[in-house]
C-alpha cells in the first residue's frame, strides 16, 4: 500500500506534545513533510527551547509512524525556532532582544531572584540565548548568584557590554556600584537608572531577556512595568496568605499596564526533611493553585524549600548549573519550558516584517 501525506498527518494529529499538551499538527510544529516511495521525511520545529526533550519527541514520532503499513525509512529531526513577540503598546523594543520576561513578586524575600536566575539558566540549558537584567536595585544579588566579579567594559560611549556568567549575558546595577554601600535613591532616579541600564547594555542576539524586578508593587515597579518592553510576566510567591495577597497586587499591576501574565510559580512550597523524608507544607498548601483558579492564570509549578537551592545560589552556582540532572533542576527546566510555550503562544512581533511607509509631498 502506498503511504500518503494524509496518512502521516493523521498519525501526527494523534501525537500529543507532553509539554504543550497540543498535538503536533495543530501546534504547527511540522515542517517540510514529504513522502516518497513509502519513505517519510519531516521536521518538528518547536517554538520554544526544549533540548532535553528532542530525543523523546523524535522517539515518539518515529514509534507512531512505524505503525503505518508498508512504511520504509523514517527521517525525523527536532529543533527549536524562537521568534519575537509583541510587548505593551507604545513601548520601544530593545535591539538584539526577541522577548522580555519580567519576574516579579508582590513582596520581598519569596525567592524571586533565585527563581529568575534558575529560570534563565534553565532556558539556556534548553538551548536558548538568554540574558538577565538585575533590576532589584536595592538588593542586587545577581553578581553573587552568577559568581561574576569585576566591572563591565565600555566599547562605545554610552553603552556597556553585558558581563557573562554560566553562559548568560548579565547586567546589574551591582556591577556598577560598591556592593557594600546602601543605595539611597528616590523613585524617579531608580527608574531612570534602570531604564538606562536596560537600554544601554549591548545585548547580543537574545531569545529571552529575564528581568528580575524589584520586589513590591509601588510606584517604581509600576513605572518599570510601563517603561520596560515586557512580553510577559511571571509572578513568584510563597504559599502563605500574606504573600499571596501581595502577589495578587502584582498580578493586577501588570494587567493594568497591558502586560500578559504568563503564570505563577510557587516557591518554598513544601519542606522535605533530609533525614526522614517527611514532607511538610511549612507555609500552607494549595494557595498558589487556588489563586490561579480565582484569577484565571496558569500555575507553572512549585519548588520545595531546600537547603541546596540556597547554598548553591549563595556560592555563585545556582542549582540548574550545580546539579543539572537533579530533580530540582528538572522542575526549573519544566517551568522554563512552560513559560516559553506560553510566550510562543502570544502574538508575534511583525514590526520587522512591515516595510517603512514614507509619505512625501511631491
Ligand atoms: N526554594 C528555596 N529553598 C531554600 N532557600 C531558598 C529558596 N528560594 C530562595 N531561597 C533563599 O531565600 C533567600 C531569599 O531569596 P531571593 O533573594 O531569591 O528572594 P527575593 O524574593 O529575590 O528577595 P528580594 O526581592 O528581597 O531581593 C536567599 O537566601 C535564597 O537563597
How would you describe this structure to a colleague?
- In the N-terminal section; belongs to the MIP18 family. In the C-terminal section; belongs to the Mrp/NBP35 ATP-binding proteins family.
- Residues 6-76 form the MIP18 family-like domain.
- This is Iron-sulfur cluster carrier protein.
- ATP binds at residues 106-113.
- Homodimer.
- This protein is of the alpha/beta class.
- It folds into two domains: 5-80, Fe-S cluster assembly (FSCA) (GMP Synthetase, Chain A, domain 3); 97-344, Rossmann fold, CATH 3.40.50.300.
- Helix content is 32%, strand content 19%.
- The chain contains eleven helices and 13 strands.
- It has helices at 5-13, 54-65, 112-125, 142-145, 187-200, 219-227, 241-256, 287-295, 307-314, 319-322, 327-344, and strands at 30-36, 39-46, 74-80, 97-104, 130-134, 163-165, 168-172, 206-212, 232-237, 261-266, 271-272, 279-280, 299-302.
- The strands form three sheets. An eight-stranded mixed beta sheet has the order 6-7-5-8-4-9-10-13, sandwiched between helices.
- Helix 3 (112-125) crosses helix 11 (327-344) and helix 5 packs parallel to helix 6.
- It starts with a helix and ends in an 18-residue tail after the last helix.
- Adenosine-5'-triphosphate binds next to helix 3 and helix 9.
- The site of adenosine-5'-triphosphate has 21 residues, from helix 3 and helix 9.
